[in-house]
Protein backbone atom coordinates (compact mmCIF):
# COMPACT_ATOMS: atom_id res chain seq x y z
CA UNK A 1 0.00 0.00 0.00
CA UNK A 2 1.21 3.49 -0.88
CA UNK A 3 0.79 6.52 1.41
CA UNK A 4 -0.92 9.27 -0.55
CA UNK A 5 -1.60 12.89 0.34
CA UNK A 6 -4.32 14.78 -1.49
CA UNK A 7 -5.10 18.49 -1.32
CA UNK A 8 -8.79 19.37 -1.50
CA UNK A 9 -9.96 22.88 -2.31
CA UNK A 10 -13.20 24.73 -3.01
CA UNK A 11 -14.01 28.41 -3.50
CA UNK A 12 -17.54 28.38 -4.91
CA UNK A 13 -20.92 27.70 -3.35
CA UNK A 14 -21.11 25.77 -0.09
CA UNK A 15 -17.39 25.11 0.20
CA UNK A 16 -17.67 22.92 3.31
CA UNK A 17 -20.33 20.76 1.66
CA UNK A 18 -18.17 20.27 -1.44
CA UNK A 19 -15.15 19.27 0.68
CA UNK A 20 -17.27 16.86 2.71
CA UNK A 21 -18.64 15.31 -0.49
CA UNK A 22 -15.10 14.92 -1.84
CA UNK A 23 -13.99 13.16 1.37
CA UNK A 24 -17.04 10.88 1.19
CA UNK A 25 -16.38 9.93 -2.44
CA UNK A 26 -12.64 9.43 -1.89
CA UNK A 27 -13.39 7.10 1.03
CA UNK A 28 -15.99 5.23 -1.04
CA UNK A 29 -14.28 5.07 -4.45
CA UNK A 30 -10.54 5.21 -3.68
CA UNK A 31 -9.61 4.21 -0.12
CA UNK A 32 -10.52 5.03 3.46
CA UNK A 33 -9.01 8.28 4.68
CA UNK A 34 -6.61 7.63 7.54
CA UNK A 35 -6.06 11.26 8.58
CA UNK A 36 -7.21 14.70 7.57
CA UNK A 37 -6.04 18.18 8.44
CA UNK A 38 -8.22 20.95 9.74
CA UNK A 39 -9.87 23.22 7.19
CA UNK A 40 -7.93 26.31 6.16
CA UNK A 41 -9.38 29.44 4.59
CA UNK A 42 -7.01 30.74 1.99
CA UNK A 43 -6.71 33.73 -0.29
CA UNK A 44 -6.89 32.71 -3.93
CA UNK A 45 -3.48 31.83 -5.37
CA UNK A 46 -2.46 32.48 -8.97
CA UNK A 47 -5.65 34.38 -9.86
CA UNK A 48 -5.96 36.59 -6.81
CA UNK A 49 -9.27 38.27 -7.70
CA UNK A 50 -11.19 35.02 -7.09
CA UNK A 51 -13.14 34.15 -3.89
CA UNK A 52 -11.25 32.66 -0.94
CA UNK A 53 -10.75 28.90 -0.82
CA UNK A 54 -11.27 26.31 1.84
CA UNK A 55 -8.44 23.77 1.72
CA UNK A 56 -7.74 20.50 3.46
CA UNK A 57 -5.15 17.74 3.13
CA UNK A 58 -6.17 14.11 3.50
CA UNK A 59 -4.01 11.02 3.82
CA UNK A 60 -4.90 7.56 2.60
CA UNK A 61 -3.23 4.30 1.66
CA UNK A 62 -3.95 2.75 -1.72
CA UNK A 63 -2.88 -0.08 -3.94
CA UNK A 64 -3.93 1.85 -7.04
CA UNK A 65 -1.30 2.99 -9.50
CA UNK A 66 -0.71 6.73 -9.62
CA UNK A 67 -2.49 6.98 -12.99
CA UNK A 68 -5.48 4.96 -11.72
CA UNK A 69 -5.62 7.22 -8.65
CA UNK A 70 -5.56 10.29 -10.89
CA UNK A 71 -8.45 8.94 -12.97
CA UNK A 72 -10.51 8.27 -9.83
CA UNK A 73 -9.78 11.77 -8.48
CA UNK A 74 -10.75 13.39 -11.79
CA UNK A 75 -13.99 11.35 -11.85
CA UNK A 76 -14.79 12.54 -8.31
CA UNK A 77 -14.24 16.17 -9.34
CA UNK A 78 -16.63 15.71 -12.27
CA UNK A 79 -19.21 13.93 -10.08
CA UNK A 80 -19.19 16.90 -7.69
CA UNK A 81 -19.61 19.37 -10.56
CA UNK A 82 -16.11 20.54 -11.46
CA UNK A 83 -15.73 22.22 -14.81
CA UNK A 84 -12.45 23.49 -16.21
CA UNK A 85 -12.54 26.86 -17.95
CA UNK A 86 -9.68 29.07 -16.80
CA UNK A 87 -6.32 28.12 -15.28
CA UNK A 88 -6.49 28.87 -11.52
CA UNK A 89 -10.13 29.87 -11.95
CA UNK A 90 -12.80 29.36 -9.32
CA UNK A 91 -14.09 25.84 -8.82
CA UNK A 92 -16.51 23.89 -6.66
CA UNK A 93 -13.81 21.27 -6.03
CA UNK A 94 -10.17 20.70 -6.81
CA UNK A 95 -8.29 17.57 -5.78
CA UNK A 96 -4.53 17.48 -6.27
CA UNK A 97 -2.19 14.56 -5.67
CA UNK A 98 0.58 16.04 -3.52
CA UNK A 99 2.58 12.90 -2.75
CA UNK A 100 2.29 9.30 -3.92
CA UNK A 101 4.59 7.59 -1.45
CA UNK A 102 8.11 8.77 -2.22
CA UNK A 103 7.60 8.35 -5.96
CA UNK A 104 8.75 10.94 -8.46
CA UNK A 105 6.41 10.88 -11.45
CA UNK A 106 6.59 13.07 -14.53
CA UNK A 107 4.04 11.85 -17.05
CA UNK A 108 1.58 13.66 -19.30
CA UNK A 109 -1.16 14.96 -17.00
CA UNK A 110 0.53 13.77 -13.80
CA UNK A 111 3.49 15.27 -11.98
CA UNK A 112 4.17 14.05 -8.44
CA UNK A 113 5.20 15.44 -6.03
CA UNK A 114 2.93 18.30 -6.99
CA UNK A 115 5.29 20.75 -8.72
CA UNK A 116 4.05 23.84 -6.84
CA UNK A 117 3.49 22.45 -3.34
CA UNK A 118 6.71 23.91 -1.91
CA UNK A 119 5.66 27.40 -3.10
CA UNK A 120 2.16 27.41 -1.62
CA UNK A 121 1.31 28.25 1.98
CA UNK A 122 -2.21 26.81 1.55
CA UNK A 123 -0.62 23.43 0.83
CA UNK A 124 2.20 23.49 3.37
CA UNK A 125 0.13 24.65 6.37
CA UNK A 126 -2.15 21.57 6.38
CA UNK A 127 0.75 19.28 5.45
CA UNK A 128 2.77 20.56 8.43
CA UNK A 129 -0.20 19.75 10.64
CA UNK A 130 -0.17 16.12 9.47
CA UNK A 131 3.42 15.26 8.53
CA UNK A 132 5.93 17.99 9.44
CA UNK A 133 8.90 15.64 9.04
CA UNK A 134 7.91 14.05 5.73
CA UNK A 135 10.80 14.43 3.29
CA UNK A 136 10.07 15.84 -0.15
CA UNK A 137 11.67 13.23 -2.47
CA UNK A 138 13.06 15.81 -4.93
CA UNK A 139 13.96 18.72 -2.67
CA UNK A 140 15.30 16.49 0.15
CA UNK A 141 13.81 18.78 2.80
CA UNK A 142 11.01 18.08 5.23
CA UNK A 143 7.67 19.88 5.09
CA UNK A 144 8.51 22.06 8.09
CA UNK A 145 11.72 23.24 6.41
CA UNK A 146 9.86 24.00 3.19
CA UNK A 147 7.30 26.04 5.14
CA UNK A 148 10.05 27.99 6.95
CA UNK A 149 11.63 28.89 3.57
CA UNK A 150 8.32 29.91 2.01
CA UNK A 151 8.05 33.25 0.25
CA UNK A 152 4.26 33.02 -0.28
CA UNK A 153 2.62 35.66 1.92
CA UNK A 154 -1.03 34.94 1.13
CA UNK A 155 -3.21 34.71 4.22
CA UNK A 156 -4.03 31.16 5.34
CA UNK A 157 -6.21 30.81 8.44
CA UNK A 158 -6.92 27.54 10.23
CA UNK A 159 -10.63 27.21 10.98
From TrEMBL:
Biochemical pathway: Cofactor biosynthesis; tetrahydrofolate biosynthesis; 2-amino-4-hydroxy-6-hydroxymethyl-7,8-dihydropteridine diphosphate from 7,8-dihydroneopterin triphosphate: step 4/4
SUPFAM superfamilies: 6-hydroxymethyl-7,8-dihydropterin pyrophosphokinase, HPPK
GO biological process: folic acid biosynthetic process
PROSITE patterns, sorted: HPPK
Enzyme class at the top of the EC tree: transferase
Domain 7,8-dihydro-6-hydroxymethylpterin-pyrophosphokinase: 87-98
UniProt key word NADP: no
EC number from the UniProt entry: 2.7.6.3
InterPro entries: Hppk, Hppk_sf
Protein's UniProt keywords contain NADP: no
Molecular-function annotations in GO: 2-amino-4-hydroxy-6-hydroxymethyldihydropteridine diphosphokinase activity; ATP binding; kinase activity
Swiss-Prot/TrEMBL keywords: ATP-binding, Folate biosynthesis, Kinase, Nucleotide-binding, Transferase
Protein role: Catalyzes the transfer of pyrophosphate from adenosine triphosphate (ATP) to 6-hydroxymethyl-7,8-dihydropterin, an enzymatic step in folate biosynthesis pathway.
Family statement drawn from the similarity comment of this UniProt entry: Belongs to the HPPK family.
Name listed for the protein in its UniProt record: 2-amino-4-hydroxy-6-hydroxymethyldihydropteridine pyrophosphokinase
Organism: Mucilaginibacter glaciei
Amino acid sequence: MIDVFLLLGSNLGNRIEYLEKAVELIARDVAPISRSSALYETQSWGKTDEPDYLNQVVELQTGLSAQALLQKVLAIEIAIGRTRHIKWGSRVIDIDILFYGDAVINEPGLVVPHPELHNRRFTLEPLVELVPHLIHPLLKKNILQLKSELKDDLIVNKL
